[in-house]
Amino acid sequence: MFDLKAMFYPNSVAVFGSAGEGKLANVLTGRLLDGGMKRVCIVNPKKESAREAKGYASLLDLPEPVDLVVVASPANTVKGILEDCGKTGVKAAVIISSGFSEAGNSAGERELVGIARQHGIRFIGPNCAGMVSTHARLVATLETAPPVGNISIISQSGAVGGSFMALSADDGVGIAKFVSYGNGGDLTVLELLRYLKEDPETKVVALYLETVPSGREFMGAVREVRSVKPVVIVKSGRTNTGQRAALSHTGSMAGADAVCDAALRQCGAIRVDTLQDLFDVCKGFATLPPVKGKKLLVITNSGGPGVMTTDKAEMDGLLIQETSDGVKAELKKFLPSFAGLRNPIDLTVEGTGEQYEQAIVTSLAENDAAVALYIGTPYLKAMPVARGVAAAAKRSAKPVAAVMQVGCDIGDSLKYLREEGIPCFASGERAVSVLAAMARERQSAKKEPCIAHVAPGSFKDGTKRLLEPEAMRLLRENGISVPKFAFAQDEEQTVKSCKEIGYPVVMKIVSPQIIHKSDCGGVVLNVRDEEGVRSTFKKLKMIGEGKDFKGVVSYPMLKGGKEVIIGLSRDPSFGPLVAFGMGGVYTEVLRDITFRVAPIEKNEALEMIQEIKMYPLMRGVRGEAPVDVDALAEAIAAFSRLPLLYPDIAEADLNPVFVYEKGILVADVRILGK
User: Fold this and answer.
1) Which residues constitute the domain of residue 43?
2) pLDDT of residue 496
3) 212, 376, 454, 650: which has the fewest Cβ within 10 Å?
């Protein structure tokens, strides 16, 4: 692991740039001093000082070396600054200056990297918004200075990171580290993630991304961090318009969102939609004990908010179970007769702090987490309830999220809860979203990634597409069920093979120049006798005239079963992907399909099957028998390994695949090479 102590824990800092009032270097110097950094100087040609930071003309003029430089001078000066860093032994730099790869000056950025490598310097940027390390009193950014805490955020956008820290400052939930890595010329999100994995001051990692670099390596880095602490991500560019915005902002296109979404789930990251969601979920991880299960208690003094919270909980996959008879009996000992005891537990407007405390503690005996709602009135005090909620959380040692609205002392009550380590949320629905995300994160921690240790082969040297008989043989050799089939190059061989297969049969043309056989009449169904085979062979041979006709492949007619599609493709960032969806009209009309980064194991394939909208059809409806989901999952997993076994596969489709009560059969296959 590389040493970034000089970057995150410097004893002295030099800022490069103009010391004039309002200039970036002047403001940065002030931020460093205000943050508590004692040894700060400023470097510019005029040797101008800024506040108590003395000015120097060059890094070489300093009386003693510094640990970190913060560069906010013109792009054409940065090269010389890094060279001076090499001469004076400075090992860390934050390059805020722009005018590099984001402006078309990739050569200039590569030159900076070369100089840094030569002298053992690590840097953030260029074109970044700086960094914060609160435990070291380092505020090297123009963004909001947050309180000290245990959330760290890496942001591709400085402004988004600044907004996150503003939320932190407003809410009193602190930050450990903030890094805006800008162009990522040297330190990338991958290295920063691995650094934060080992950082004892970081309890949860937040990420804002517009693009995902080196998709598989990124997944590996997230998995590494995820093994010891949660990773929560906002990935923008979900829509086509959003992707165009990301392109104009960063200079590289965001990946296909469905693929990215699947990849983030696979590596154990928690993906959220908005900046507020990102902050809320990180706040939950930073302040709450682990959510070990899905059973949620909702306790309220107002029916409507309690019901809305319950609705949201069920939509997010949490369980709102009715209070058991035993717990009801205990609740009745101290709650009034008009209180609702079923869950949500409704204490009504007369609920006291003591009743909140005892009801939460009693009910959490059979639940995993609680949301405590207090919707007060302007003339009543909220503090007694705040004290009751905090006491209950300590006694139960389980996650308790608070929602407190209205009260003559609501500000003091919220402050008290924050000081007691109880997170407060704007609504019950927001609190539920956080607890549900924490429950999912704990569940995903149990998943093991599929690691393929295979020897690369080749499915067919010197070709761009496998003929169907070859493709069927490849599937069969790799444990994927295919029907009995026979390939014949002349009419007599075809007659013989169809008789051996048994009528009725399906006959398909085989030609490397005909990809979509059905479109040209190259698939004939229900051929029932020898006469039909002969006439069909002649018809297919005529279709293949001038198109390198190779022969005919024949199969038995397949009946029944549900039609699904399994596909392979390659993503520019994540590499081989496996896709699954319902076949036939469902694929074309409903676009009911899901993705994973290949390869996957059977358990991940089962999740894919259960994700599609049409999954209930596979379980059986209106008296239909369920299909063999286990066999289908095994086929998906086996198919997902093919790009690792045969790296010259560019894309492949199994469409349709028939899934029966017992087993599956691939009815058609297409495999293309790179």
Assistant:
1) 1-129
2) 96
3) 454
